[in-house]
Amino acid sequence: MATLTVPAAVPPVAEDCEQLHKAFEGWGTNEKLIISILAHRDAAHRRAIRRAYAEAYGKELLRALGDEIHGKFERAVILWTLDPAERDAVLANEEAKKWHPGGRVLVEIACARTPAQLFAAKQAYHDRFKRSLEEDVAAHITGDFRKLLVPLVSAYRYDGPEVNTSLAHSEAKILHEKIHKKAYSDEEIIRILTTRSKAQLLATFNSYKDQFDHPINKDLKADPKDEFLATLRAIIRCFTCPDRYFEKILRLALGGMGTDEDDLTRVITTRAEVDLKLIKEAYQKRNSVTLERAVAKDTTRDYEDIILALLGAE
Amino acid sequence: MATLTVPAAVPPVAEDCEQLHKAFEGWGTNEKLIISILAHRDAAHRRAIRRAYAEAYGKELLRALGDEIHGKFERAVILWTLDPAERDAVLANEEAKKWHPGGRVLVEIACARTPAQLFAAKQAYHDRFKRSLEEDVAAHITGDFRKLLVPLVSAYRYDGPEVNTSLAHSEAKILHEKIHKKAYSDEEIIRILTTRSKAQLLATFNSYKDQFDHPINKDLKADPKDEFLATLRAIIRCFTCPDRYFEKILRLALGGMGTDEDDLTRVITTRAEVDLKLIKEAYQKRNSVTLERAVAKDTTRDYEDIILALLGAE
């Protein structure tokens, strides 16, 4: 379900490095060449290119890129070039440090990754920042959001398919009771959402619908302006329908006045090797226009080129 | 600092399996033979023996042991034979299910292991119980203990030596202020103890002593009967002086009326390959008697034999 396109015969790593080095040389930078290489290599290849480039030229590839390109194009190229776990660590660190109630990065990294991927991001966080993700989240965020987000990024959830249906039934009841009382930050709601496995949570949400006749997220829409409620809904959607969750992020990033390049870049770079094809389908279905066309309308130049390349546009 | 003694030339795994199989055969069981093998093999060897035994005899070694031996001797042999991560998973699961405020297993697994070892225990927990440690702790424990123990077992702490001294200074102040107000379960105390790295916490406790003239644990002794305070002290001691922490568990297990075999077995089996030599030294220093002698006085027969073997007694 990835959109990343890789040539049938990928050139040798040494040749990719040479071409990238050439793209940086002389007057100006050959952005098209950079895109034609990096936007068409999978994570393992990009890692090999970074290693070989540093050995061949005595300079980190990311640093060389940072010297040559700028702004939102630079951010997209660098985020994309990073390993998925490292990229998640960088994004999570940015959000933890300048957190605001509308932030969604921590939710996505905790809930739209597998438990093993979340753990890999936490290891990358240690390596890069010499601290833990959980201590930064706990130190920078306060109140109810801290109560929710610290366990959300901390738990190592079970990842298997086993489901306890009677537990799903009783925990759906607990969720309903607390939501009914508007006790949205109740520790039972937080306990269930932050510790149960994805399979168990899906069973619980299904039981909720069966018992109470409407989806849990509808009951969490009582106050559309409440960002804590919005965060709970985001958590649930990242588990139940990540493609539609990300479609909405893209819809809001592209629609309305101005474009939110941070959101656009994040969703494209984090999903291009995962499920961006599904997200594209959801986008077209919901907006009656292809995601490629919407991106082309809202972006320009090299930034447009790399986003479209990652989207798998011809 | 381990007490485990392994022969200079360890027999081939197949021979160990044959000997164990022989120990189970015929009338009665040869407990001495079981001890002479399993109590003198390191974790990697024991793992190899388990694998080879199951292949050779079509029966899990642990099941064969369970059919032959019983009671506290069985428990000691089986806990010891398990992989360290699996053993931690089993112990943590037992404590989570029948938790009481005096329980120390979760604290030990969270604070007297490296972050990587704690994570390995959580992986073993998934494999064995098809659930996560954090969800079981969260589901079975309530109130202030839940607020403390869930993040304690969840966090993946940074494990490096880097210390932020000004942070240590300011967080020591926060701890002092909250303790002074008897706000022992305050979320700031919990945040600091459950997320900061071991090196950072040691710096914070040192700063506490420097700023306020006595160790933090002295201030946490306000009410000696308060089990929440005792748990906080146990957390701090597992970080600052695990040898003396475990010495005290052994002292209480062996002293007074009756012997607490659960505590004795747990400490011996979990530390024999780690730091039991240091714990023995601390024991002798504190009790003016060797740990071997105290164990010999309080235990009998096969159980005594395996505990003494793991203690490295001649």
From TrEMBL, chains A, B:
Ca(2+) 3 binds at D298. Coiled coil: none annotated. GO terms for molecular function: calcium ion binding; calcium-dependent phospholipid binding; phosphatidylserine binding. One of its GO terms (cellular component) is plasma membrane. This is Annexin. It comes from Setaria italica. A pair of annexin repeats may form one binding site for calcium and phospholipid. SUPFAM superfamilies: Annexin. Keywords: Annexin, Calcium, Calcium/phospholipid-binding, Metal-binding, Repeat. Ca(2+) 1 binds at F24, G26, G28, E68, G258, A296, T299, E304. InterPro entries: Annexin, Annexin_repeat, Annexin_repeat_CS, Annexin_sf, AnnexinD_plant. Belongs to the annexin family. One of its GO terms (biological process) is response to heat. It comes from the Eukaryota.
